[in-house]
Structure formats: C-alpha cells, structure tokens
C-alpha cells in the first residue's frame, strides 16, 4: 500500500453491525497510517452540546495506529471548518494491505475546537455490558484507554505530533497529487 491507494476499513459495532469505510491513504509509516474520508453522507448532523461535529459532505482525516486501542479523527464541517478531534476507542486494527478490521468499543473521546476534552458514550458501553454484547474485561480495557487519553490530553502529551502536523488542506493536496500516480 502506498500514498494515494485506497483502504477498506471494516468497522464492527457489537453485537452484529458492520460498516465499511473506503478511504484514501495520504501517509503511511510504520507507526501511523493517515487516511482521508469520502464526503460523509449523514442523514442528520452529528452534534455535541449544540455544536455541529460533522454534517452532510463533511470530511474527516483519520490517524490509525497499528497496535493501539484508539484511532483519531480530525472532524470538519462541509465548508472545511475544523470542529474538533475525535478518538474512537476500539480494538487494535488488523491491517492486511488494503483491508482492515477493527471493533468499536463504544467509548469516544471528543476534544472540540476551543473546548475541553470529554468522554462520550459511557451509557452505550454500560448498555452493551448489561446486555452481554461486550465482556467485562474488554469494557474495562476500553475505559482504561479512554482515561489514559484524557489524562494525557490534560497534561499536554496527547495527541501525538503527527496529528498536529496534518491539516485537511494538506491531506487534500496529498490526495490530489496521489491521484496522478494511479
């Protein structure tokens, strides 16, 4: 796989849902793969405390870290305005060439532009635990990862530098230059 290639991410949501995301690779290193989403076709905007996180035709820039229990998305409105940083807590992705597999562990960390970092969807994790869709050990691992990210954000050591090195504009330029090679 190289810059400009596409990857299909099989994103499982317990107990039995799966979505497949088709994204363009804009950077590949041993420690991170950066991908650019397609314009999102959301039926309704994704909103947190009255502010739009994502909307129809929004783009997200994703940072996937082999072996880690989270990924990071830089969210933007349809007009390109940065809305914040979103981390999915998930199983470490299995990354075989252009097909990846991971399982969502319900919790998310949201850091809105100009705001404070917050934990999302604790209620969804509790519902999954109570209904037997996730085992207690895995739920504990998800909570541990979310707490770790929030603590690191509050002390200023998260997200990793590669995230601040990339902007939507840079990703779009890389995607355009990669199209010429394929």
Summarize the topology:
Blueprint: E1 6-13, E2 17-28, E3 33-36, E4 46-48, E5 51-54, E6 60-64, E7 70-76, E8 82-90, E9 94-96, E10 99-112, E11 118-120, H1 122-130, H2 136-155, H3 161-165, H4 168-179
Describe the structure.
- The structure is a single chain.
- Strand 4 and strand 5 form a beta hairpin.
- Helix content is 25%, strand content 40%.
- It has a single domain, classed as FomD-like (FomD barrel-like fold), CATH 2.40.380.10.
- The chain is an alpha+beta fold and 182 residues long.
- It has a seven-stranded mixed beta barrel. Strands 4-5 form a two-stranded antiparallel ribbon.
- It has four helices and eleven strands.
In oligomeric terms, what are we looking at? Answer: single chain
CATH domain fold name: FomD barrel-like fold
What gap, in angstroms, lies between the N and C termini? 12 Å
Record the strand order, biggest sheet: 1-2-3-6-7-8-10
Strand content: 35-45%
Number of strands: 11
User: What's the rounded overall pLDDT mean?
Assistant: 94
CATH architecture: Beta Barrel
> Portion of residues in helices?
25-40%
């Amino acid at each position: 796989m190289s810059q400009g290639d596409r990857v299909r991410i099989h994103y499982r949501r317990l107990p039995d849902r799966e979505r497949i995301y088709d994204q363009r690779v804009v950077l590949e290193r041993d420690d991170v793969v950066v991908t650019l989403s397609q314009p999102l076709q959301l039926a309704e905007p994704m909103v947190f405390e009255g502010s739009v996180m994502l909307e129809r035709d929004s783009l997200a820039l994703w940072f996937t870290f082999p072996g880690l229990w989270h990924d990071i998305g830089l969210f933007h409105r349809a007009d390109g305005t940065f809305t914040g940083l979103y981390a999915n807590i998930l199983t470490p992705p299995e990354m075989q060439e252009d097909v990846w597999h991971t399982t969502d562990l319900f919790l998310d960390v949201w850091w809105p532009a100009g705001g404070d970092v917050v934990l999302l969807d604790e209620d969804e994790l509790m519902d999954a635990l109570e209904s037997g869709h996730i085992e207690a050990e895995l739920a504990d691992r998800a909570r541990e990862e979310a707490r770790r990210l929030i603590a690191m954000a509050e002390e200023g050591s998260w997200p990793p530098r590669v995230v601040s090195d990339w902007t939507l504009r840079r990703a779009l330029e890389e995607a355009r230059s990669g199209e010429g090679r394929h």
